[in-house]
């Protein structure tokens, strides 16, 4: 399941972004939690430590005044006693740590117990109880109008209890500060560790993504550069299943197709040059022979016949090249009209037979085989079919052409015995675009432009060109057009 999550570049980049987002969220969550813990410690300080210290300072001042004037009857002193008493009652209700139900107080008490400072809680309670007892004794003495040692002892006891509370609160302040610093340091450490872990995870995932993409893109770029500079295709052969593999395989297929197409064009040009050179060589040779021997009438007559035949062949080759170019562009003009396919096959057969040194083409056709077609295209298609059949046939082997008028299609079939070197099962490839035929026969090399034009002529007419073999091993070429 996990490997499938990284089958695409998008999923890898998404995983990298997800890792960054998770790291950021983790850091944010830890930071918020750490700040909350620090604020919790500070909240306890501001609620349970700082306010009592302010009240304790005033209460100490009042206790000092009471100790200095314990023997006098003064309403202002009585007010000081009441103020100290009210402060102590408030302290007991709001700020006394022991038994306080407030959440901050409960957490602070647990912290003191956990750190071995629980005795401060006891000291605070005892100091508060002593201060309350001293205030009560001081109130009773002033109410009774007592003078002497009793009021002084009560005031001194109150002062001592309040000083004890101040000392306890000083310890509380130190502990709260240490607790805040401890939580801040712990938060910093957690954030540093989490941040480092996030950075390492993102870096590792980034390296994983880079290792899965960068080398393949470099191979892809190198292949494109190699093709651009040298015209040679260096296959990438990416076996992955992601977008880079799709791109690499598509590029491989495209560049291989371009290279194959260029090779086909080069072979086609070579074959076309050879085909054009053959009649030109014959024309030039016989022309030079006739010019060198003007007195020989028979040679001159033969030279004129060869020049005529080869000129006609050259014209057919040029027309075939022209039509092949228009087929490549998809610009074949189709001008149908009624015609006799049998008569057309006989005329083209006679033309091809005139160029053969041995047996000609034997065309067997009914009286009339009427079809609706383009005479110019069908004539060129038949010439391509017959001339290539002649090139494929072994020397001296009969070349029989049968023109049949069927119910749905008229068919021109050529039966031939192919040369031994050409007797293979890939003859059908001659109908592919830019295909060329070149093979060694007895004493010569045969070259042709293929049957692609013949097939396209059949296709334009709504028919087909079929290449097959008979049970006897003969090659059968059939041109079918609708009747």
Could you provide a short overview of the structure?
By secondary structure, the chain is α+β, with helices and mostly antiparallel strands. The protein has 11 helices and 9 strands.
* CATH superfamily annotation of the largest domain: Histidine kinase-like ATPase, C-terminal domain
Overall mean pLDDT stands at: 75
Strand order of the largest sheet: 2-4-5-9-8
By CATH, the architecture of the largest domain is named 2-Layer Sandwich
Share of residues in strands: 5-15%
Q: What is the overall silhouette?
A: rod-shaped
Descriptive account of the structure:
By secondary structure, the protein is of the alpha+beta class. It has two domains: 2-210, Four Helix Bundle (Hemerythrin (Met), subunit A) (Up-down Bundle), CATH 1.20.120; 269-482, Histidine kinase-like ATPase, C-terminal domain (Heat Shock Protein 90, 2-Layer Sandwich), CATH 3.30.565. 68% of the residues lie in helices and 11% in strands. It has a five-stranded mixed β-sheet, with helices on one face. It has a two-stranded antiparallel ribbon with strand order 1-3. β8 (464-469) and β9 (475-482) form a beta hairpin. The longest helix has 82 residues, at 149-230. 24% of the residues are buried. Residues 438-447 have low confidence and may be disordered.
Task: Tag the structure with descriptive keywords.
single chain, 483 residues, alpha+beta, Four Helix Bundle (Hemerythrin (Met), subunit A), Heat Shock Protein 90, 2 domains, five-stranded mixed sheet, two-stranded antiparallel sheet, 11 helices, 11% strand
């Amino acid at each position: 399941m996990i490997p499938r999550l990284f089958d695409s570049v998008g999923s890898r980049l998404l995983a990298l972004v997800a890792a960054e987002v998770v790291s950021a969220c983790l850091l944010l969550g830890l930071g918020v939690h750490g700040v909350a813990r620090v604020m919790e410690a500070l909240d306890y300080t501001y609620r349970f430590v700082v306010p009592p210290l302010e009240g304790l300072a005033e209460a100490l001042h009042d206790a000092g005044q009471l100790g200095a004037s314990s023997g006098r009857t003064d309403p202002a002193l009585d007010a000081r006693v009441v103020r100290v008493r009210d402060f102590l009652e408030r302290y007991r209700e709001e700020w006394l740590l022991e038994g306080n139900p407030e959440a901050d107080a409960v957490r602070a008490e647990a912290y003191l117990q956990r750190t071995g400072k629980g005795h401060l809680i006891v000291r605070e309670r005892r100091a508060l109880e002593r201060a309350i007892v001293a205030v009560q004794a001081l109130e009773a003495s002033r109410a009774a109008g007592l003078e002497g040692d009793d009021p002084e002892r009560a005031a001194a006891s109150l002062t001592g209890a309040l000083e004890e509370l101040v000392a306890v609160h000083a310890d509380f302040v130190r502990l709260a500060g240490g607790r805040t610093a401890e939580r801040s340091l712990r938060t910093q450490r957690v954030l540093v560790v989490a941040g480092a872990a996030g950075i390492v995870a993102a870096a590792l995932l980034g390296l994983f993504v880079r290792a899965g993409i960068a080398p393949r893109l470099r191979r892809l770029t190198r292949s494109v550069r190699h093709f651009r500079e040298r015209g040679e295709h260096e296959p990438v052969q990416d076996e992955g299943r992601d977008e880079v593999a799709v791109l690499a395989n598509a590029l491989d297929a495209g560049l291989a197709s371009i290279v194959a197409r260029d090779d086909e064009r080069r072979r086609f040009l070579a074959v076309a040059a050879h085909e054009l050179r053959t009649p030109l060589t014959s024309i030039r040779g016989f022309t030079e022979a006739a010019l060198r021997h003007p007195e020989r009438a028979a040679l001159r007559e033969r030279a004129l016949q060869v020049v005529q035949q080869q000129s006609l062949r050259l014209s057919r080759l040029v027309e075939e090249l022209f039509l092949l170019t228009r087929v490549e562009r998809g610009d074949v003009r189709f001008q149908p009209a009624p015609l006799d396919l049998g008569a057309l096959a006989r005329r083209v057969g006679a033309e091809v037979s005139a160029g053969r040194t041995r047996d000609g083409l034997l065309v067997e056709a009914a009286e009339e085989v009427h079809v609706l077609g383009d005479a110019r295209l069908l004539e060129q298609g038949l010439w391509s079919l017959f001339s290539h059949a002649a090139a494929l046939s072994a020397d001296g082997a009969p070349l029989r052409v049968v023109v049949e008028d069927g119910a749905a299609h008229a068919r021109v079939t050529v039966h031939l015995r192919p040369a031994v070197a050409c007797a293979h099962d890939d003859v059908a490839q001659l109908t592919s675009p830019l295909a060329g035929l070149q093979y060694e026969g007895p004493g010569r090399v045969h070259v042709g432009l293929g049957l692609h034009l013949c097939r396209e002529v059949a296709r334009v007419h709504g028919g087909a060109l079929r290449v097959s073999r008979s049970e006897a091993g003969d090659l059968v070429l059939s041109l079918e057009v609708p009747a």
